[in-house]
Amino acid sequence: MKRRTLFIAYGILAAILLLVTAIQICRMHIPEKTYQVTEETNDPYKGLVSTIEGTTTEMLSADHWITEGGNRELFSQDEIEAFNHNNQPYVLYYSKTDSRDKKLFMNDLPEELPREAIESLINDESKSIIYERKQPLYINGEVASEDYFDDLRSLMAIDEIPETVEPVYAVCIKRCDAKTVPSEDFASEDKDEIFFNDYTSSEVMPFAGVVILHESSDMQWCYIIDGSFCGWIRKSNLAVCKDKDEWSSVCEPEDFLVVTGSEIVMDETAAPTHSSGMVLPMGTRIALSKNNSETINGRSTIAAYCVDVPYRDDAGNLGLEQTLIPVSKDVNAGFMPMTSENVLRQAFKFLGKVYGYGGTLCSNDCSGFIRQVYDCFGFDLPRNAAAIAQLSDLGSIDCSKMTSEKKRSLITEMPAGLPLYMSGHIMMYIGTEGGQPYVISSCATTIEPGHDTQDLVDAYCIFVSGMDLKRASGLTWLDDISYILWKEY
To answer: At 348, phi and psi to the nearest 5?
Structure first.
């Protein structure tokens, strides 16, 4: 009996030991984060994403900066329309006839332009590169020969411009880069440069209206005006309109969608389409169809917007293709209300994207970032950061003579989502924390707080930072701010 009791006791003890061992083994395989408190999971970037010094990963969320006043309207739609009406984009050319600079407004061009206007525009864009070089230019990593520049000059065919030129209205059918010369080459005075192409003028967005002024001698490139800048783009990216009325109806539709994601990709379709797989960046406007079919591209129109997408036909002319955009895509019917919250949410959709000089790499430089965000609300801003900064209708305040503390007091009172400018760089104010104003911007290089001016950070991306970052001069960003754009000040 005693032996049986002892046997049972040993069995129970063995079972307990096995159970304890099993529990310990299970615990060894349960990730540590299972036992972390909820507070840790509120910051999904912690330990995974780096930030500029003085910025925490919690600051990488738009929600971190949106306050109770986030619904405050920055600009009404009427104010935005008035701004666009009063600030029509233009380009400048030098008139030898009148011995002065003259403006060309893309939306109000004469029926004919003088030769000197086109010649001046082309030469102004390219003279520093192919006529007035002060040091060797590297083309795709190799020093360019004089023959190379002779070929470029021949390709531009300036001597073939007639005495008067009739503007040709066209629509860009895909995002592309406008160049200062008709070439896809990468040009730089630094052999190892990879971001700044000296041939880049600016990006041309899908479905943007442009005006063709001239063609290259090989008929592969067109010299165009796109609002506030000019440049050469591939002819294959353009669809020519019958007249200005058709051009206006496509570029400025009454009813439209606006892309509100950093970009969307058009769905693949069972039936062949021109738009299948097309990438549309933030701010793109797509006309809503006026005549909707029950089926499009072989499928029903359920849960999708019917839109008309411009394309280039075999003859190079404009065609419109009806297709569908699912309601699940990041788009909005019409312009968004311009509140602080909406602006911040749009801006943070670009956070971490690569810096794209002049719109290269399908991304943005500092002004392109501001322009694309503001496109969602209907603003038509100029290409250049300095030109944006000095727009009085945006509330431009020249603060260059103010003390840094005065600038700080002004900035911390202004609503989030408005631009700030210092020479060569425009950024967006997002809020203040610990007395430090913070911004989001697309920036190439900077110097972190407490570091020497030689310690450059090659950021080349869109990031959040305090305004205690330094410039090469040793001044902080706050010190160097010269324009605050706040219409209510």
So the answer is: -75, -10
Take residue 463 and report the two structure tokens written for it: 């990031």
Residue 437's identity, in one-letter code, is P
Query: For 286, left (φ over 0), alpha (ψ -120 to 50), or beta?
Result: beta
Nearest 5°: phi and psi at 341? -60, -45
pLDDT-wise least confident of 30-34, 248-252, 286-290, 443-447: 30-34
Residue 297 backbone class (left: φ over 0; alpha: ψ -120 to 50; beta: rest): left
Tokens describing residue 146: 């004089």
Lookup result for tokens 């956070």 = 351
**Distance separating alpha carbons of residues 259 and 248, to the nearest angstrom:** 20
Cα–Cα distances in angstroms (integers) from residue 393 to residues 122, 272, 389, in the given order: 30, 46, 10
Greater pLDDT, 335 or 21: 335
Q: Is 24 exposed, middle or buried (0-12, 13-18, 19+ CB in 10 A)?
A: exposed
In which band, very low, low, confident or very high, does the pLDDT at 39 lie, cut at 50, 70 and 90?
very low
The beta strands (E) that lie in 198-326 are given as: 200-204, 209-215, 221-226, 229-234, 238-240, 256-259, 263-265, 279-281, 285-288, 295-296, 299-300, 304-312, 318-326
For residue 435, what are its two tokens?
């007395």
Give 3-state DSSP helix, strand, coil % of the chain, rounded to 5.
Answer: 30, 30, 40
Q: What is the pLDDT of residues 233-290, one digit of tens each?
A: 999 999 999 999 999 999 999 999 999 999 999 999 999 999 999 999 999 999 999 8
With a cut of 80, say whether residue 146 has pLDDT above it. Answer: yes
Residue type, 238: L
Judge whether 411 and 420 are in contact, CB under 8 Å.
yes
pTM value surpassing 0.70: yes
Q: Which residue, among 382, 400, 374, has the nearest Cα to 475 in the 3D structure?
A: 400
**pLDDT higher than threshold 80 for residue 458:** yes
Predicted confidence band at 23 (pLDDT cuts at 50, 70, 90)? Answer: very low
| Residue 19 predicted with pLDDT over 60 | no
Query: Exposed e or buried b for every residue in 187-196, given b needs 16+ CB within 10 A?
Result: bbeeeeeebb
Which has the closest alpha carbon to 442: 473, 412, 419, 472? 419
Task: List residues bridging with 129 in a β-sheet.
Answer: none
